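Q: What would this chain look like folded?
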Amino acid sequence: MTVLIDPPDWPGPRGLMWSHLVSDSSLEELHAFAARLGVPPRAFDRDHYDVPETVHARAVELGAEAVSSRELLLRLVASGLRRRKRRQLP
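A: My prediction, written as structure tokens:
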């Protein structure tokens, strides 16, 4: 069981850079880790949490594995937990 976090490379609200927090084994593990980290449930989006740069170091301290964005996506897909956005028809 591993929680993964990518670098805060994604621009977002409040002028902060953002990371993705995922689990490569279960959503229950991910939700429990996010709660320990103090990330609100509203930050969850289908298969990951969006977290600001201000919590990246704390996530690693709590045991998240820092990986590249590419590695995070590959491991999320391999876990079977990836949930893509549905395409909206025109």
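The first helix runs from residue 27 to 37.
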